[in-house]
Amino acid sequence: xxxxxxxxxxxxxxxxxxxxxxxxxxxxxxxxxxxxxxxxxxxxxxxxxxxxxxxxxxxxxxxxxxxxxxxxxxxxxxxxxxxxxxxxxxxxxxxxxxxxxxxxxxxx
Length: 108
Description:
The chain has one helix at 2-107. The protein is an all-alpha fold. The radius of gyration is 46 Å and the shape is rod-shaped. The N and C termini lie far apart (158 Å).
């Protein structure tokens, strides 16, 4: 009877130890999955940060391009305005010359 009780005790101990081992294995698997999930999250977040940085650099370059374009276009407008003023002055000079020449011809 004592031997049988001892065997039952040993069997219960083995079953409980096996269940504990299974629980530990499941815990290790879950922890591993959590670590994998967290690593994937970190990698994705890092990629997001890299992409956001690239976006910021490209947007800054775009803004620089727009500023340069605006400056060049302003210079073009100034140049064209100067051209119109000079051409108008030339036209006035020609008109004055024609008037003076006409008066000269009439005088003679």
